[in-house]
Amino acid sequence: MISESTKARFAKEVAKYPADQKQSAVMACLAIVQQELGYVSTDSEAVVAEYLGMAPMAVHEVTTFYNMYNQRPVGKYKLNVCTNLPCQLRDGVSTLKYLESKLGISMGQTTADGMFTLQQSECLGACADSPVMLVNDRSMCSFMTPEKLDQLVDGLRAAGDK
Amino acid sequence: MTAQHILSQFRATGVQTCFHNRHINPQILAGLDGSNWRLKDYEARGGYQALRKVLGIGGGEAMTQDQVIATVKESALRGRGGAGFPTGLKWSFMPRQFPGQKYLVCNSDEGEPGTCKDRDIMEFNPHIVIEGMAIAAFAMGITVGYNYIHGEIFSTYDRFEEALEEARAAGLLGNNILGSNFSFQLHAAHGFGAYICGEETALLESLEGKKGQPRFKPPFPASFGLYGKPTTINNTETFAAVPWIIRNGGQAYLECGKPNNGGTKIYSVSGDVEMPGNFEVPMGTPFSKLLELAGGVRAGRQLKAVIPGGSSSPILPASIMMDCTMDYDSIAKAGSMLGSGAVIVLDDSRCMVKSLQRLSYFYMHESCGQCTPCREGTGWLSRVVDRIENGHGRPADMDLLDSVAEDIQGRTICALGDAAAMPVRAMIKHFRHEFEYHVEHKTCMVPAYV
């Protein structure tokens, strides 16, 4: 089931496209699902498919093609550190390593308390801000020195559910 | 503090990368400070005057579609997304009399490593893109447009949506714009992590709600684009250049740059410089000047090499680069491409094998898998560079890399295959000795790489 508020968000996306091209909203609808539920499950894909009049497999193709969709649950905060060449030249890799050691996990893993998932990412399109990190798909964090990483990780831990 | 508040502390302000007063005669980034992105600020800077001029509102005769296209042709504006195709010529390909729906698409899927200019344009001056798109739509008789924005810059997408709302509320978008008989509906869409969607036909597939796999060309988007309808696609910065051209004339824009390379260009300078950022300078500015604007090579080191136009463009050694001017023709003559204008600077402490290793991994990761030479070839390139870097290289590997790259180039539906192959071939051509040293000594020629 999708809530009325989610449906309203879906409708806003669908309205951007011609009436016979509702499928165009699939990227946005899946992103909304992910923001609300943390990941895109097969059940969610089926809901989106029904809403947009698509085959579930066509929705699944989209979920699996684009890097940012989580196909399984992730931590409360997904941290994506760019390590592509422009960032590699400006501490991108050491930023990733710093977080691995601070969080006690390797990239691709989630902390035992379910708070953080750490991932390496491809170009975030913020090369001059390196080191850069994207948090939960929507918050780009720039110039992430170790001090700022401490501030961010410790701050999010302290914030709890706020 | 709430989580949202904590995260917002780290949001880029643009102070270091954009509002540094180290542009030269800027047009798109002129007068910005990070807080003045709204409609009223843009209008105070002369915004939407070009659209008014085109529509003949507030004195003066309206321009014809042909006059707008002729002005853009005269300006020698070339596509800022990477291909450098003449914009006015592209606009003239649109079959204006086509009776059905036609579409205008802005390619803001900025994911070419090194490129971060469209983000700053949309974040700090979104209305300039809206105005440029509206003028383009008018010139080509288009009534519906989409701006497809890189999914990773979601806050910029949100801001662009906000700017669209402002423009609609002010009658600058929608039906009968400013009381004229011109109507244009513009919407924002976002990607969600796929480099390939920067390729225009992959972008169209994505906009249709599918996997972003490029289409065969022909047919070109001008005849068979979004939903199979005639479509014109330009880059964000290209649209952003249009208002200035309309206000000041094509000749004036051309004169800002150099022949065949009109106007200013925003270069994203990253890597080993003191002050990375975006720099808007006239086309034809010497590379040495651009390097100086970015504070020079970091920590007083020597310049080793430059990737002049995004990660896909062939790398050029310092000696060649220092003689180049930053424009399409000069960089092409030197054997590379101006591309998106993303200048990645490498200093003399950098190992070329390690640098290529990261790029080759990227292309393997982002190949859409549709064409065998690219899907398989990018894997080969990545694995062979990996083994050289890890001390397991073989003497024949350099020739193997070159041959795999050659077998990809020109044999795929889209340019990602070429984009993966070109950096490899250029690295082997200019820095073969470093690869050979790696194979022989199982270690880097240069000191430890950070």
Commentary on this structure:
The complex is a heterodimer of chains A (162) and B (450). Chain A is α+β, with helices and mostly antiparallel strands and 162 residues long. Helix content of chain A is 46%, strand content 11%. Chain A has seven helices and four strands. A four-stranded mixed β-sheet of chain A has the order 2-1-3-4, covered by helices on one side. Chain A is elongated. The model of chain A has no long low-confidence stretch (mean pLDDT 96). Chain B is an alpha/beta fold and 450 residues long. Chain B has 18 helices and eleven strands. In chain B, helix 6 packs across helix 7. Chain B is globular, with a radius of gyration of 22 Å. Chain B starts with a helix and ends in a 9-residue tail after the last helix.
Beta-strand content bin of chain A: 5-15%
The number of helices of chain A is 7
Report helical residue fraction of chain B: 40-55%
H/E element sequence of chain B = HHHHHEHHEHEHEHHEEEHEEHEHEHHHH
Largest interface (C-beta under 8 Å): A-B, 61 and 69 residues
Give the end-to-end Cα distance of chain B, rounded to a whole number of Å: 35 Å
- What is the total tally of β strands of chain B? 11
Features:
heterodimer; A: about 160 residues; alpha+beta; four-stranded mixed beta sheet; 7 helices; 4 strands; about 45% helix; about 10% strand; B: about 450 residues; alpha/beta; five-stranded mixed beta sheet; four-stranded parallel beta sheet; globular
Write the layout of secondary structure elements.
The complex is a heterodimer of chains A (162) and B (450).
Chain A: H1 4-14, H2 26-37, H3 42-52, H4 56-65, E1 77-82, H5 85-88, H6 92-103, E2 116-121, E3 133-135, E4 139-141, H7 146-159
Parallel strand pairs in A: 1-2
Antiparallel strand pairs in A: 1-3, 3-4
Helix pairs in contact in A: 1-2, 2-3, 3-4
Chain B: H1 3-8, H2 39-44, H3 49-55, H4 65-75, H5 87-93, E1 103-108, H6 117-124, H7 126-140, E2 144-149, H8 154-169, E3 185-190, H9 200-207, E4 231-235, H10 236-248, H11 250-256, E5 264-271, E6 277-282, E7 285-286, H12 287-293, E8 303-307, E9 316-317, H13 318-321, E10 325-326, H14 328-333, E11 342-347, H15 352-366, H16 372-389, H17 397-408, H18 416-441
Parallel strand pairs in B: 1-2, 1-4, 2-3, 5-11
Antiparallel strand pairs in B: 5-6, 7-10, 8-9, 8-11
Helix pairs in contact in B: 3-10, 4-5, 4-7, 4-11, 6-7, 7-10, 10-11, 15-16, 15-18, 16-17, 16-18, 17-18
